[in-house]
TrEMBL record:
Residue positions binding Mn(2+) 2: 350, 419, 443, 499
Cofactor(s) it depends on: Mn(2+)
Organism: Lactococcus allomyrinae
Top-rank taxon: Bacteria
The protein's name: Cyclic-di-AMP phosphodiesterase
Annotated ranges, domain DHHA1: 564-649
EC number(s) stated in the UniProt entry for this protein: 3.1.4.-
Length: 654
């Protein structure tokens, strides 16, 4: 009968009426007495009432049961919310005030002696969007947002963060240390003196390794390798690779002009790749002038980080490298159909001079060569030099416009980039990109953005100019007595004169040797003066900036362009040059609005003041004593403020 309880009262009444009808029919047809029918009716009514009462009891019990289950479920959900190690916060999405939160949230914030408020909600929401860990007290949390329900879930990630940092700390680090100028310093000394220098180097580096717990191995007198994990590297980074300064000072005390170049890389698992990046970094540290560290993680997207670079590049006394480059370049030119030479954007006299010398070199190798310029980016002195070239000889001087060069270029042509090594600075990127074979000859410290397909690169940051480097390469050609005209020699010498400010800056004995060679090829002083003469109006604009200058910090001059006036590169550069000539000034900065809209800084310095790293911090670059940058989307005042802040930071670091 149990199943009957599940019927509804109406169903039971209908069933019982049917039963009554059937029973009545049976009795009528069996001729039974009328009183029997009445008894039967009464019996059915009683049965119906009993069944209805049972059904009602069943329904009531079922509701109680469901209610009880619901109560239990609610209690257990509340207990879970109360006890689970996840914070749940409901907030008002207009005011951001917390409306409800579970005890875990209370515990997180009470642990910090406070109750969660709208500022906490704001902070959490900011970090949800930035995908950051949230620091609350000593713990770290990740937050998930259910924006539809205005709910925040707060998950304790302290252990995860600790594990991650443990994991990162154990990354492998490989480093290579090279002693700069070791060969020059030990060239003309006795064996016992050399042994003393070797001992000094080994003892110093062993004590450096001991201090940090590094494993170090000597490969030869001037080269060491070291291994450690990232935890140790981090300490060395926090000390800003003070090993560089310590080594420079200790060797100076011993009257040995030595510095260190260090290449370091780190990463997971792939040790050969980490080692290779470390070696590339060492090469970069050396070509940037030595006395510095280049650090880059072994990942595709990692960018190099530089430390040091606090001494000017030392001159390589030996010209062995120039000879080797000259030989290698002859082979590359011999295998090419012809040669195109480009300088940097707004090609200057040094770039043009180096181009003319390389054209002569290619001609000596029996190949046709073209120096490419862009009439849209023509500086006045370069324009005058090109006009002079065109006046002389047969009218076709192989100094050609970019558009002509694009048409002449063949699949097997060679591109020589002179006076720059950043693809972003090349005269025209598409033109550069159309070459499969590229050679780089430059006197700037090497940076990233170096041409990937370079077959050969000759970078000597201690050289005065690119023109000087190319003259040396030229001199090592057996055929060097031929194929350089007076006007060509004059342009190359003008290039050296421009970068050395008439032999008063960055000159070495090699600069004068190159100049003597050019003089022997007929370089003409009057011609050079005519080419390099300053335009009268430009001179006035240079003075405008100089007159608007101030000594902003001890020995540091800052000149500003006049508001709403625009200046070209050379005017700004010349103003910085002029300010540096003033008594007591060791660094000068000219800040102007460029004719192309951006803000331009030219920076010049002397006496160990590194303007290159300063300009690098502002997105530019250049040399130790001669650097610049271009800044978009800021005005002169903002740039001036940033520059002064960096200069003050530099003062504090000293
Ligand atoms: N964004 C950059 N990244 C890396 N390096 C950069 C960047 N922008 C500039 N540089 C390099 O910084 C130095 C200094 O540049 P500058 O513009 O201040 O000065 C150069 C020329 O404008 C200037 N110059 C050219 N002709 C003359 C002239 N007739 N008289 C005086 N000054 C002149 O001389 C600087 C030439 O520098 P060089 O090419 O390095 O020899 C520079 O290295 C930029 O490449
Ligand atoms: Mn140049």
């Amino acid at each position: 009968m149990n199943f009957v309880r599940r019927f509804s009262p109406l169903t039971i009444v209908i069933i019982m009426i049917l039963v009554q009808v059937i029973e009545s029919l049976v009795l009528i047809f069996s001729d039974t007495r009328r009183s029997g029918l009445i008894y039967l009716l009464i019996l059915n009514v009683v049965i119906t009432l009993i069944l209805l009462s049972q059904t009602r009891n069943y329904q009531l019990r079922r509701q109680d049961f469901i209610r009880k289950i619901n109560d239990e479920a609610e209690n257990s959900l509340n207990a879970t919310l109360d006890n689970m190690p996840i914070g749940v916060i409901r907030f008002n999405n207009q005011s951001l005030e917390p409306e409800w939160f579970n005890p875990f949230v209370d515990m997180v914030f009470k642990g910090n002696d406070k109750i969660i408020n709208r500022d906490d909600i704001k902070l959490i929401l900011k970090n949800v969007n930035d995908d950051q860990y949230i620091n609350i007290g000593s713990q770290k949390y990740v937050a998930e947002l259910d924006s539809e329900k205005s709910l925040i879930y707060l998950i304790d990630a302290t252990k995860e963060v600790a594990f991650k940092s443990e994991f990162n700390d154990s990354r492998a680090v490989i480093g290579s240390i090279s002693v700069d100028n070791y060969d020059d310093a030990t060239d003309l000394i006795t064996d016992s003196e050399r042994t003393a220098i070797n001992n000094f180097i080994s003892t110093f580096l062993e004590s450096f390794a001991g201090k940090y717990g590094i494993y170090i191995r000597r490969i030869n007198s001037s080269r060491h390798y070291f291994f450690c994990d990232y935890r140790i590297l981090e300490k060395i980074i926090n000390d800003k690779f003070s090993v560089l300064n310590d080594f420079r000072k200790s060797s100076a005390e011993k009257n040995i002009p030595l510095t260190l170049s260090i290449g370091v890389s780190y990463g997971w698992n792939d040790f050969p790749a980490i080692g290779k990046v470390a070696m590339n970094n060492l090469e970069l540290a050396q070509v940037r002038g030595g006395d510095q560290v280049v650090l880059r993680e072994n990942t595709e997207q990692a960018r190099p980080v530089y430390f040091g670079g606090n001494s000017e590049s030392r001159t390589q006394k030996s010209r062995t490298r120039a000879r080797a480059i000259s030989t290698a370049l002859r082979t590359i030119i011999a295998e090419s159909d012809d040669v195109f030479i480009v300088g940097h954007k707004y090609t200057d006299m040094d770039a043009l001079g180096a181009g003319v010398a390389m054209k002569a070199f290619a001609n000596m190798c029996g190949k046709e060569a073209f120096v490419v310029y862009d009439p849209e980016q023509l500086l006045p002195d370069v324009g005058r030099a090109i006009d002079k070239m065109n006046e002389s000889s047969d009218g076709f001087t192989h100094i050609i416009r970019l558009e002509t060069a694009k048409n002449l270029k063949k699949t097997n042509s060679l591109l020589i980039m002179v006076d720059h090594s950043k693809t972003g600075q090349t005269l025209n990127f598409d033109f550069y990109n159309s070459f499969e074979k590229v050679v780089v000859i430059d006197h700037h410290r090497r940076d990233d953005d170096f041409p990937e397909q370079a077959l050969l690169s000759y970078i000597e940051s201690s050289a005065s100019s690119a023109s000087e480097l190319t003259v040396e390469i030229l001199q090592f050609h057996d055929n060097n007595r031929r194929k350089m005209s007076t006007i060509e020699a004059s342009i190359v010498l003008a290039g050296i004169e421009m970068d050395t400010k008439n032999f008063t800056k960055a000159t070495t004995e090699r600069t004068f040797e190159a100049a003597a060679y050019l003089r022997s090829r007929g370089a003409d002083n009057d011609l050079i003066k005519m080419i390099m003469a300053t335009d009268f109006e430009k001179y006035k604009k240079v003075n405008e900036i100089v007159l608007n200058s101030k000594v902003i910090l001890p020995h540091i001059a800052l000149g500003l362009g006049i508001e709403h006036q625009k200046y070209d590169n050379i005017t700004t550069a010349k103003a910085a040059d002029t300010m540096l000539e003033m008594a007591g000034i060791t660094a000068s900065f000219a800040v102007t609005q460029h004719i192309n809209g951006f803000i331009s800084i030219s920076a010049r310095s002397r006496n160990g003041f590194n303007v290159q790293t300063l300009m690098e911090k502002m997105g530019g670059g250049g040399h130790f004593n001669n650097a610049a940058t271009q800044i978009y989307e800021k005005n002169i005042e903002e740039v001036k403020k940033d520059l002064i802040e960096l200069l003050k930071e530099r003062e504090n670091e000293k």
